[in-house]
Amino acid sequence: MDIFDLRWDIIWNYRELFLRGLWVTIVLTICGYIGGIILGVLLGLGETSKKKWIYWPSKIYVDLFRGTPMLVQILIIHLAFIPAVFGQSFGFMVSGITALILNSAAYNAEIIRAGIQSIDKGQMEAARSLGLTHNQAMRKIILPQAFRRMIPPLGNEFIALLKDSSLVTVIAASDILYAAKVVAGAYQRFWEPYLVAAFMYLVLTYLVTKLIAYVEKRFSNSYNPRRKQKGGLGI
Amino acid sequence: MIKVENLTKSFGQLEVLKGISYEIQEKEVVCVIGPSGSGKSTFLRCINLLEEITDGAIYIEGVKVNDPKTDINLIRTEVGMVFQQFNLFPHMTVLENITMAPMQIRKLSKNDAEKLALELLDKVGLKEKAYNYPEQLSGGQQQRVAIARALAMKPKVMLFDEPTSALDPEMVKEVLDVMKQLAFEGMTMVVVTHEMGFAREVADRVVFMDGGYIVEQDKPESIFDAPKNERTKAFLGKVL
Ligand SMILES: Nc1ncnc2c1ncn2[C@@H]1O[C@H](COP(=O)(O)OP(=O)(O)OP(=O)(O)O)[C@@H](O)[C@H]1O
Ligand SMILES: [Mg+2]
């Protein structure tokens, strides 16, 4: 097969499959990411807890999910876990999103734990010495500072999840990679479908990178005194 | 107003405070001096329970602070604390640093809290810095903001843990002047310090700690000019 003799028309014939794949990848990633953040915050807070019955389950969960391959997790969740718990499968979408949430939550938890623990302990002491409860101090003092430090690594996690979402192809989820595989199988041509798939992922990661840069800029700006001063009394 | 009874504190095997009893009267300024590692900070931090007390008791206005039934957050609102490292909140303006606790805890309106904060900033000479962020201030200015922040809760006692030790020499005076002013206005204060000049001038009593004990305590003239204990003499010989 000659690399200079590419037949892009076969991609065009399967454009609907690719568009559907694009849609599936986006939905999987966004749902997985949002769920992963929510669960990750809980687990990350759990990992900083002094209460053993909160700390240990969080810690074990995170270690389990970070210590095993996502591909294996997807298979277990789709073929074993969901059928065992619910007696039936709900299709690749439910299994895929579940796997992505559970997996990315473990990584997000580590980011959140590290972010919280990176804040100088004098901050908590100062807040407590004023009479704030632990929860008030977390909310007003620790988390706002930690959050700024978490934005870049959480952004990286978004990109990693977007790319890792291609692993759901293994349970026949019709994402971008799946579309490429179908076309490759039908025509026995490999350059065109896989290059297109790669290109689609590239465009998506590029867009996400831009989004993260925007969020980062926005939040670092709220630190910028000049901006806030305008709203103040200007004394 | 603060009564400390046979206070001991251990970190694991290490016994840092070995039985401290002391009483601080209202409007009294007590300076705590002593060599590094003698337990001065630990003593101060036990008073508002930043450290858990191993044994003994501390009473503030008759309320036992290390009683499980005592609301420690309530106690802490009455006990202001100023740290060596300032510990201002870097993500808030100077004004927000000061208004945060009164709004959160005393439920002051934003207007009232800001009015109070500006008064306090005026008092520490930093009104024009209200809308700056801590990182834009010098160390001395940050420490003065930290004092204003603690005062905003209208505490009955102020605890200072080496408030000038992290400062460049030329900024020490501006902070000590604010503290002198406070003492003059009748604030009850416990000050851990290496500034012997300040202790001599402002303190009603000086407490010398060494090895987890209060070795000697007296009026500043007596401690500085006629120390009785050998260890006090040795320490003062080194620092004066
Ligand atoms: N959180 C802690 N865990 C273990 N040991 C501690 C802890 N805090 C203090 N110590 C130990 O307790 C002893 C007394 O410390 P403390 O900070 O009270 O001394 P200090 O008199 O304030 O000294 P300095 O003048 O250096 O501030 C030291 O030996 C110190 O190492
Ligand atoms: Mg100390």
TrEMBL record, chain A:
It is found in: Cell membrane. Keywords: Amino-acid transport, Cell membrane, Membrane, Transmembrane, Transmembrane helix, Transport. It holds the Pfam family BPD_transp_1. It is a multi-pass membrane protein. It comes from the Bacteria. The chain crosses the membrane at residues 22-43, 64-84, 90-109, 194-215. Residues 22-212 form the ABC transmembrane type-1 domain. CDD domains: TM_PBP2. PROSITE patterns: ABC_TM1. PANTHER family: GLUTAMINE TRANSPORT SYSTEM PERMEASE PROTEIN GLNP, MEMBRANE COMPONENT OF AMINO ACID ABC TRANSPORTER. NCBIfam families: HEQRo_perm_3TM. Belongs to the binding-protein-dependent transport system permease family. HisMQ subfamily. This is Amino acid ABC transporter permease. It comes from Ureibacillus aquaedulcis.
UniProtKB/TrEMBL annotation, chain B:
The keyword Transmembrane does not apply. Residues 2-236 form the ABC transporter domain. Its main location: membrane. GO terms for molecular function: ATP binding. It is a peripheral membrane protein. Keywords: Amino-acid transport, ATP-binding, Cell membrane, Membrane, Nucleotide-binding, Transport. It comes from the Bacteria. Pfam families: ABC_tran. The keyword Cell membrane applies. It is found in: Cell membrane. Belongs to the ABC transporter superfamily. This is Amino acid ABC transporter ATP-binding protein.
